[in-house]
Write a structure and sequence with these properties.
Elements lengths: L5 E4 L8 H19 L5 H15 L6 H12 L8 H22 L6 H10 L3 E6 L3 H11 L7 E4 H4 L7 H10 L6 E5 L2 H10 L3 E5 L22 E3 L5 H7 L1
Parallel strand pairs: 1-2, 1-4, 2-3, 4-5, 5-6
C-alpha cells in the first residue's frame, strides 16, 4: 500500500505558466494601445509597463492606468494624452489583455498525465493557492482541471494566507492525514516549501524557471526553506513516491 495518502499542489507557475501568460497579456495590451494611435516606441512602452509591475506587483489592477499617467507626467517627448483618450486606450489594453489570457492559458505538458496517474493510485489531491477566489477558480475552470482534485483551497476563502503554516495544517485536517503521509509541491521556497516543512509534510520544490525559481547552484538553501526533494518535471514525482 502506498504510504502517501495526500498530495497538494500550488497553482500559479506550478501547474501552468502564470508569469509568462501575464507578461504576454500585458504586451498585447501595449500593442493594442499603439495600434489605436498611442505614439510611443514599443520597447520604451514595454520597459515602462515592466517597471510598473515591478513597483506595484503583478497583482495590481491598474497597470495600464498608471502607465498612461506616467507618460503624461514624466515623459516630455510624448504628446499629452487627453482625459477621454486615456480611457479609450485603457479599454483597448484591457480587452487585449483578457483576450490573450483566455486564449493562451495552458497546462504544463506534464500536469494532466501526472494527475491521471495519481487518481489511478487512489491518492487524494488538492490545490492550495493564494489569490482572489473568483480569479483562481476562473484559472482552474479554464484549465479544465477541477475534476482532477478532491479539494481546492484558496487562502482568501478561509482567511489564512501562505506562508502561514496553518493553511497546510487546515488541509491535512480536512483529510485527517498526518504530515508524513502527505506531499506538497510548489515553486516558491518561502510560500510553499517553508509551510510544508513546518508541518512535517514531504516538500517538493518544482523548478519551472519562473521568477521565484532559485535553481542557481550558488544559492545556498538552508533550514526550513530547504526542500526534501527538487524536481523539474512532475513525471519525477512518482520516483519520490516510490522512495518514500
Amino acid at each position: 500500500m502506498c504510504p502517501i495518502k495526500l498530495i497538494g499542489f500550488d497553482l500559479d507557475d506550478c501547474l501552468f505558466d502564470s508569469t509568462g501568460l501575464s507578461y504576454n497579456a500585458r504586451i498585447k495590451g501595449i500593442d493594442a494601445m499603439i495600434k489605436l494611435g498611442l505614439k510611443i516606441d514599443r520597447n520604451e512602452a514595454v520597459r515602462i509597463i515592466n517597471d510598473i509591475v515591478q513597483e506595484f506587483s503583478s497583482n495590481f489592477s491598474k497597470h495600464f492606468n498608471f502607465f498612461l499617467r506616467r507618460l503624461n507626467q514624466l515623459n516630455d517627448n510624448i504628446e499629452f494624452i487627453r482625459h477621454n483618450d486615456r480611457y479609450k486606450f485603457i479599454a483597448a489594453a484591457v480587452m487585449a489583455y483578457h483576450e490573450e489570457k483566455v486564449s493562451s492559458i495552458r497546462l504544463y505538458d506534464d500536469v494532466e498525465t501526472c494527475l491521471s496517474k495519481l487518481k489511478n493510485l487512489s491518492i487524494k489531491t488538492a490545490i492550495i493557492t493564494d489569490g482572489l477566489p473568483v480569479k483562481q477558480y476562473e484559472k482552474i475552470l479554464r484549465l479544465k482541471i477541477d475534476s482532477f482534485f478532491d479539494l481546492i483551497i484558496i487562502s482568501d476563502e478561509i482567511g489564512i494566507k501562505k506562508p502561514n503554516p496553518e493553511l497546510l495544517k487546515y488541509w491535512l485536517k480536512k483529510f485527517n492525514v498526518k504530515g508524513e503521509d502527505a506531499i506538497y509541491i510548489g515553486d516558491r521556497l518561502d510560500k510553499d516549501i517553508l509551510p510544508a516543512n513546518l508541518n512535517n509534510i514531504h516538500s517538493v520544490y518544482l523548478h519551472r524557471g519562473g521568477k521565484y525559481d532559485k535553481c542557481d547552484a550558488d544559492v545556498k538553501i538552508e533550514g526550513n526553506l530547504k526542500p526534501d526533494f527538487e524536481i523539474s518535471s512532475l513525471n519525477e514525482l512518482f520516483d519520490i513516491i516510490d522512495e518514500i
